[in-house]
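Sequence only, no structure available. Ideas?
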Amino acid sequence: MGGDHAPDSVIAGVKSAEKQYPDVHFLIFGDEDKVRPYIRKYALSADRFDFVHTPDYVASNEKPSVAVRQGRKSSLWLAIDAVKQGQAAAVVSSGNTGALMAFSKLILGTMPGIHRPAIVTILPTRKGECVVLDLGANAECDARNLVEFAVMGEAYCRAVLKREQPTLGLLNIGSEDIKGRDEIREAAQILRESALNENFKGFVESDDIALGAVDVFVTDGFTGNIALKAIEGTARLMVNLLKDVAANSFISKLGFLLALPSLKRLKKKMDPGRYNGAMLVGLKGISIKSHGGADAFGFANALGVAVDAVKHDLQGNIAKQLSTISLEKEEAE
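Reply:
I predicted one. Tokens follow.
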């Protein structure tokens, strides 16, 4: 029951998700004395949830290594363990990101054929939306890791964005075949010789993300995290520039008022809450990270990501696609 606005935003998000997903039952973990008032406030349907009381929690600033040693009775640990035990189909948390990753890998374990899980999310583009991974779970990756990310990203795109034939691209410093580090070029060669070849479009650059040049952008966690933060910073800059221009003169203010309906539509499209819910893919269970500052709308969308992943058997699709790609060369090396 973590997050900047928990438990209010979490329970409000569950209430919203109740309406969107009438066939979903919720398992809520937390301190009953703190959470129950919000369950009453938002009038959760008694037959739509079960509550598991635990006063222990992982603080937002707690180191993952400390959390692993001391947090085995925390709400986060118990929620993830519920997925392992088959009591829940997925876990969604707005709490400590490092602890969520550490607990998820330790409790759930990685899928057969997957060496490293990756953080994947959805971002807005000129054409609609795209999938980007890894966003920070793995600072350094070899060719095999990148190919595994491509497989997982392709399956995720099918499940969440409903794309029947997702196109793939490896994020690089140029589109030419000679550009980039050895592991990126090696991963490209493996993908060209794999079952994903038809939809693999080669190398893409960071400005292609906003253009939506492909459906799935694959990169290492170091590069992906920097790209994500740059995109977020640019979005905030544009908002501030628009505000400054609008306040510049009376004519500017008038023009701003006339454009307000269009600007509201733009704000809605760019609302981070629409794209909330980053999944740690590659595990033997579904683990979703909601942004710590997410409101009820954002948390409900993170729950929606979990629902889509379960409904479309994301784990099974990843395993099926992975079986079609030969990685014997990397294993021999």
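The chain is about 50% helix and 15% strand.
Hope that gets you unstuck.
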